[in-house]
Design a protein that fits this description.
By secondary structure, this protein is of the alpha+beta class. It contains four helices and 22 strands. β17 and β18 form a beta hairpin. The longest helix has 38 residues.
């Protein structure tokens, strides 16, 4: 424009001339990023507050206008149980081994050929029942020879005794000298020794012959067949011919820590204590027996004392060498409050239950003590109170509930805090 002189770019810049610095592109991006984050945060806060307002309205309507947050918009279906008053046993648990009173491995005492096997595998036999026959003919022949020698020497002795009587009569009449009488007396004694030796041989051969007829020394159950007719056995062999195990009654041996002896010994002196045998998973009780005896010393390496309980085992549920879980009854708590063990929940060291009252769940702290057969003795509630036994992951104080008659699975991974 006229009158206005444009500055020349080639003129030097003096102190009175300043140029504006060009804008930095990095600062523009930071500003825009902050603006976007602010918008996103505002939208998120608006949506969250809107959703909480809707849930609060729904919860207030379901509760009949009451306030407060709830985990569900409707009643929680639960299964319940009623606390009862009863008795519960105090047990000492231990791992035991089923041990027969008698187990017999019968080995051959006579050599020969097996002629008969008179038992079936798994058969119950009585004491004295025939089991195995070994060919007895060689032993019968030997016995016959011994009996013949005994008969001969018995008659020789009788003849010597008759001669002794004649010598005594002759000596009384001074018909013979004293030396002849004394000699005959010693001959009688020698013949008596011979007869006694023959009698011992006969008795020994009878015993050897009896080894050919093997009978059961105890009443019990025969094991698997180990020999067959025609097998040759040797006297003194350690290989068993048959194994017989007593099954009824049967015992269980288990170990109790020495610290528990003060609970056991006074009651054991007053009478036998009850012992229950459970399967390995402790879900089925197999049998109930009595504590019959204890070992005479404590094992110093484990600090435990071995004990033996006897079971009638009428249905053969206990099997030799079987591992079982034993429960020794040492005391009984009478008149305590009992609830299912699954009703008790834990929050750290605190035990609590969900008490159902007027269709709502209330948290009640309890103190549990003894458990037995799915029940636990607790303090903090009264007999007749109703407690929840399921849906713990959905319950909290004040939750409305509906009672379900069908089992409801509880997710154990969910927290059990009230």
């Amino acid at each position: 424009m006229p009158g206005i002189e444009e500055p020349r770019h080639d003129e030097p810049i003096g102190p009175d001339h300043q140029l504006a610095a060009p804008p930095k592109s990095g600062s523009h991006w930071i500003v825009w990023t902050l603006l976007v984050l602010a918008v996103v945060a505002g939208v998120y806060i608006y949506m969250r507050n809107h959703k909480e307002a809707q849930n609060s309205k729904a919860g207030s309507g379901a509760a009949g206008g009451g306030g407060g947050r709830a985990r569900m918009t409707g009643p929680v279906p639960v299964t319940v149980a009623t606390a009862t008053k009863g008795n519960i046993g105090v047990y000492l648990d231990a791992l035991g081994t089923v041990t027969p009173v008698y187990t017999t491995e019968i080995t051959p005492q006579a050599a020969g050929v097996i002629t008969a096997v008179n038992y079936h595998e798994g058969q119950y036999v009585r004491k004295g029942d025939p089991l195995i026959e070994i060919d007895p003919r060689p032993y019968e022949a030997t016995l016959t020879q011994a009996e013949g020698a005994l008969e001969r020497d018995t008659n020789v002795l009788a003849q010597a005794q008759m001669d002794l009587e004649r010598y005594k009569q002759a000596w009384a009449r001074n018909g013979i000298n004293k030396q002849l009488l004394d000699d005959q007396d010693k001959i009688v004694l020698q013949d008596q020794g011979t007869v006694k030796n023959d009698q011992g041989t006969v008795d020994y051969d009878k015993v050897q012959l009896s080894y050919c007829h093997i009978t059961s020394p105890i009443s019990g159950k025969a094991g698997l067949r180990l020999v067959d007719p025609g097998n040759v056995v040797q006297a003194g062999s350690t290989t068993p011919l048959v194994v017989v195990t007593q099954m009824q009654p049967i015992t269980v041996i288990f170990q109790i820590p020495e610290d528990d002896l003060e609970q056991i010994m006074p009651r054991l002196r007053n009478g036998a204590l009850t012992v229950d045998a459970w399967d390995r998973s402790e879900t089925n009780k197999l049998a109930t027996g009595k504590l019959t005896t204890t070992n005479n010393q404590i094992d110093t390496t484990t600090g435990t004392l071995k004990m033996r309980a006897t079971f009638e085992n009428r249905n053969d549920v206990l099997f030799p060498n079987q591992f079982v879980n034993t429960k020794l009854l040492v005391n009984t708590l009478n008149g305590v409050t009992l609830i299912p063990t699954g009703a008790v929940q834990h929050n750290g060291q605190v035990a609590f239950v969900y008490l159902i009252d007027n269709g709502a769940a209330q948290v009640r702290n309890v103190k549990g003590s003894v458990t037995d057969n799915g029940l636990i003795a607790v303090q903090g509630i009264n007999p007749g109170d109703i407690v929840a036994t399921s849906s713990f992951e959905k319950l909290q104080a004040g939750s409305k509930i509906t009672v379900s008659k069908q089992p409801i699975a509880t997710n154990p991974s969910e927290g059990n805090t009230p």
